[in-house]
Structure formats: structure tokens, C-alpha cells
Amino acid sequence: MANKTIAFLLFLGSLLISSTASLVAEEGPKLEPITITVQKGENLSLISKRHLSDPNRWPELLKFNKIPNPNLIKPGLSLTVPVFLRKPVLGVAEFVMGTVEWNGAGGTGPWTTLKLGQELHAQDQIRTSAKGKVDLHINEVGLVRVFHDSLFEVRGKETPNSAASLALMKGSLDAKVNKSQEKPKDYKLTIVTPSSTAGVRGTEFRVELDPKLNSTVSCFEGLVDVNAEGKTVALTQGMATFVEKGNAPAEPYQIPEAPRLKSE
């Protein structure tokens, strides 16, 4: 009897350890303090927009770094951004080819070269050159590949339980979204363009903008809902729709089988 009791307790212990490990594994990446060096052309306002969750908390940044005067923010100065002031990390650049630039202040301020492994935050913008391409891992979503001659913004989530939102202002992208474990109607990602919004659960799909900002959305696997001007069409595997800016989506049509999206 004693042996059975001991075995049962050991079994419960292993379950507890396994459950704890699972919870830890499901947590998002933890923020760490970062140290930045002020570059030529940067000022306190721009640094706050790029790195602080609330740019208005710049006095706390100065206090943490024991800087008594904002006028002391000059090129070459090192600043530590503590965790309690940092923007949440929404993703990371996993592959970069050609010229790809990053703007961490919602399109304001100077553009800088996007580096492999660079963290992504809400309102970060990315633009690619004629030969540029970048793969982005978006936390809790999956892989997004931004192609050449594109302009793209990470919007983040409006609430902790809402879908992640990305904006495509120019060019094209492919995405492979992890299959959702939630209710079938719950989106994991929305792609916003000037002419349409695509709501995605777990799927592989493409969004393309032409020079007039009309959009074509193609579904390679899974299901994508495309909305514009109050009308929504559902795309299943092998279907696409065209959305002229200012008009509702066209009826879905069949497309040739597309190659599967793989990491570079």
C-alpha cells in the first residue's frame, strides 16, 4: 500500500512539473533592459517614440539614467531603457535580404538599416528596396514575409485578447499563420490595406497592392475573410478576391496552386 502511495505522489509531482514547464514555455519573450547610443540626428523626443511604451514618460528615462537636463542628450551618449519603460516586443526579424529599412517612430524621424534579429514593436515601419525582402516572426501569430518595394507597419493588439494587426501600405506580403486553438470565429491576425481588411485564423495567404492601392488577397490554405465597404467574402483554399479601392470585394475566384511558404 505504501509503495502505491509513493508512486501516486511521484506521479502527481511529475504532472505538476510538466504543467509548470508548459506554462513557462507558453509565455511570450521576456523584456530585458536595453542600452542605446544616441545617434546623429536623434533627440529625446525621437528616442522616446522609438523605445518607450509611453513617449510622455521621457522624464522617467532621464531620471533612471541620472541625467538632469534634456539638453545633455547628444550623439555618443549611452542610455539604458529599463523594462518598465520599454515597448512590448511583438516580433523579430528572422531573415533579411537586400536593402531593408526600419523606422521605430511610426514613419517619423530617420530610417535606419533593419538588422537580423532586430525586435519589432507597435508602430514600427519597415520598407524594402527593389531587391529587398524580409521574414518577420510575429509573436503568437507566425511568419510574415514582406517582398520588394513594400511599406509595412506593425500595429500590434488593441487589447490583450484581440487579434494582432499589421498594415500593408505598399507592395505585397505572404504569411503563414499558426492554426488557432480558439473558437473558429476568432481571428489571429488582421492585415489592413488602403482598400481592404483581411481577417485570418490559421492559414497561408498573400496580400498584394497595385499602384492604385487596389488589393488582391489569395488564400493558399485555411480560411481568410476579406472585408471592404461593409461586405465580407470568405476565401477558402485555392481562392482569391480583388478589391478595388472604395468598392466591395469581388466574388471569389479560383487561383493556381501556389508554392508553400517556407522559412529562408
TrEMBL record:
Keyword annotations from UniProtKB, A to Z: Signal
Keyword Signal appears in the UniProt entry: yes
Membrane-spanning segments: none
SUPFAM superfamilies: LysM domain (SSF54106)
Top-level taxon in the UniProt lineage: Bacteria
Leader sequence residues: 1-24
Name recorded for this polypeptide: LysM peptidoglycan-binding domain-containing protein
Keyword rRNA-binding: no
Pfam families recorded: FecR, LysM
Domain LysM: 34-81
